[in-house]
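Hi there, hope your week has been kind to you so far. It would help a lot if you went through both lines with me. No rush at all, and the record is pasted right below:

***
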Amino acid sequence: MGKVVLVTGAARQLGARFVRRVQRDPGVERVIAVDSVKPPYRLGAAEFVRTDIRQSAIARVLAEHAVDTVVHLAVTGGGAGAGGGTRSAVKETNVIGTMQLLGACQKSPTVRRLVVKSSTAVYGGAARDPAVFPETAQPKALPSGGFAKDAAEVEGYVRGFARRRPDVAVCVLRFANILGPFADSPLAEYFSMPVLPTVLGFDPRLQFVHEDDVLDVLALAAQEPRRGTLNSGTFNIAGDGVLLLSQCSRRLGRPTVPLLLPAVTWVGSALRAVGVTEFSPEQIRLMTHGRVVETTQMREVLGFDPLYTTAEAFADFARSRGTGLLPPELMGRAVDGVARLLDVEAGRPGIGDGVRDTRDTGDAYAGYGADDEGANR
């Protein structure tokens, strides 16, 4: 008999794509797709069960279908697509829904594997953050709200479940910001704006993971471990390398508007009020301090190597969004011109005076790994 896999969050595009992806696994017999709304996407041969994981009915679904593998993708930051909604509704699904699901898994005699989609946002965002976060790192300041706090609470409940059910293999995947042609996250909405508001004086380092790599690592985590690997534990998932926010804007051809932090906060509130984008305080912290995580455990323990680097994931996303207000080449020349003027004013040697231009080579901070604090500023 093959495995019976239950996937939550199936009404969002990522969840629906994973439902179709996991059906290709020869070890999977049936896939049960769960969400509180009808998916607008194809689910292949999967059986869709319309139920709210915040309700106790999820326990009946596990029992009726003898589910042995649960892939929990309903932990989300909101944004476009099915399953979005008010902040309070999203938080209830993230936290209360996870509690109900874990309670049902704890009582189920058939569940043997649990995979939970989390986020590197659990590390928070502060001025004195380390240059690189390993899985064992603790944030300098715990997330005070938003999706980051939800993810931190979810992981706490998952750790409690793992202690109560040591016979269940539990895998928590902390994804960096997910990008790709179909990305519908708040960050994807931000990068799709014609002009990007930024925090004056900050150029944060960012990491991305391609949505195709997300599907592949989820499928790997849901399988039986291969020899030499361990499909349980907590793993950071991100593409190699980093990009500066300034590099991202240049590659998109979208100019930035540097604002003082209070003004950025006001702009974010205004954009949320009119429904333009989910420019939350959490995202503003990311745009200020950035975040980079270590991925050694992903390769050496989980046995996963992403197909896309951070730069390649962003390039694929950028192609899907088309040209911005300015062609990237013109945007780059304009930024270089302003930089030269600022260098002259400050009495520094400019580009062309024997100084190598590393502002958009893609290898800035490529050798990251230093332990210095405040490196994200």
In short: The chain is about 40% helix and 15% strand. Residues 350-359, 361-377 have pLDDT under 50 and may be disordered. The longest helix spans residues 87-107. The radius of gyration is 21 Å.
